[in-house]
UniProtKB/TrEMBL annotation:
Keywords: Flavoprotein, FMN, Monooxygenase, Oxidoreductase. This is Nitronate monooxygenase. It comes from Verticiella sediminum. GO terms for molecular function: nitronate monooxygenase activity. The keyword Oxidoreductase applies. The keyword Metal-binding does not apply. InterPro entries: Aldolase_TIM, NMO. Gene3D superfamilies: Aldolase class I. The lineage of its organism: Bacteria, Pseudomonadati, Pseudomonadota, Betaproteobacteria, Burkholderiales.
């Protein structure tokens, strides 16, 4: 366990966990790994509160944050994120879909305020990123910042390095990994198509060794389809120095997902985690539902480009989440969902991964001895 990546962050086990839930992040770090908080929907004030909460619970141990730090921003000022500017065809399609499914509409007296509150969480501007970065730099326990949308701009990278913070980025292509290395990042996270959310199309088994070879000796974390010790062993066998997990935490008791959503995850199979453009306009892996399936039916309109599909899906998500319309409910999740069958804890997930990882190494050593004989 005491490998390069553990030494880099002073952690006990090379298990990195991404979550939008502070409880999950803190518990991963407390268990010896490194939790990373997703910050896509936070205001600076909210992020300050979340990081203070985590600081109080990790006992000085390191953790990370994910920030949207692309080289080029799609600047979407709040005045542009207006639901009324959406194409009528798309609005009608979504409204009629949910009406036909018996999902109640939002109360007219609350609709505008609910939409405004939800839309105000959609941020992708340089100014907002800078404000979140200022918050992060005030918290010395943050030792890793991961950019989810490419390498961060040079001035941001320099600021992070000046504060002793390591910087990584997600990648689904070798070409992008090479750019991250050339830009001076400290590590890359090679994310196979099995993962949740926005992913590429290359499978983990192919992507991981390609990225490892391309950026060596830069350390690589393996992501996409990892939730068991045998998968961790496979990642190490293919050259990774650690693993990056996201979906496997969704069914834990620390996760803030509603119970109804957890039940849907436990009932799902691997093939129910589908790539869809229905939520953001970009391909993202999510749990199959009547909402995701509607967008691939004959006659359905083409999803809008980012961020407008996110704007369009906002009212739909408010409607089916408020009504607990389980046939329509969905969330980002990877193909590992097929192994999630009941509620557990973050700490138990980590222990189970490590136990199976150790057993696998023993089995492989015995197999090696048999081959040698």
């Amino acid at each position: 366990m005491n490998n390069t990546i553990c030494e880099m962050f002073g952690i006990e086990v090379p298990i990195f966990g991404f979550s939008h839930c502070r409880n999950v992040v803190a518990e991963i770090t407390r268990a010896g790994g490194l939790g990373a908080l997703g910050t896509a929907y936070y205001t600076p004030e909210q992020l300050e509160m979340e990081l203070n909460w985590i600081d109080e619970r990790v006992g000085g141990k390191p953790y990370g944050v994910n920030l949207l730090l692309p080289q080029k921003f799609e600047t979407v000022g709040q005045e542009k994120l207006d639901f009324d500017k959406l194409p009528e065809e798309h609005v009608r399609f979504v409204r009629e879909l949910l009406d036909a499914g018996g999902v109640p509409r939002l109360p007219e007296s609350e609709r505008e305020s609910l939409l405004r509150e939800a839309l105000d969480q959609l941020h992708m501007t340089p100014e907002h990123a800078g404000e979140l970065l200022d918050v992060v730099l005030r918290h010395p326990n943050v030792k890793l910042v991961v950019s989810a949308l490419g390498s961060p701009p040079r001035h941001i990278l320099d600021r992070l390095h000046e504060h002793g913070i390591k910087v990584g980025a997600m990648t689904g292509k070798v070409q992008h990994a090479l750019k991250h290395k050339a830009n001076g990042l400290d590590l890359v996270i090679a994310q196979g198509t099995e993962a949740a959310g926005h992913t590429g199309v290359v499978s983990s088994m192919v992507l991981w060794p390609e990225v490892v070879d391309a950026v060596a000796p830069m350390p690589v974390l393996a992501a996409g389809g990892i939730g068991r010790g045998r998968q961790m062993a496979a990642a190490f066998a293919l050259g990774a120095k650690g693993i990056w997990c996201g979906s496997i935490w969704l069914g834990t008791r620390e996760s803030d997902l509603p119970d109804e959503m957890k039940e849907l995850l436990w009932a799902a199979n691997a093939e129910d985690a589908v790539q869809t453009r229905s939520r953001t306009g970009k391909p993202g892996r999510m749990l199959r539902s009547k909402f995701t399936e509607a967008w691939v039916q004959p006659g359905a309109p083409q999803p809008l480009p980012m961020p407008w599909q996110s704007v369009l899906s906002t009212e739909a998500r408010l409607r089916f989440d408020r009504a607990v319309a389980k046939d329509f409910m969905t969330c980002p999740v990877g193909q590992i969902v097929g192994t999630m069958r009941h509620e557990t804890s973050v700490r138990q997930v980590i222990y189970d991964i490590l136990a199976e990882f150790g057993e696998t190494l023993v089995d492989m050593a015995e197999l090696s001895d048999e081959v040698a004989e």
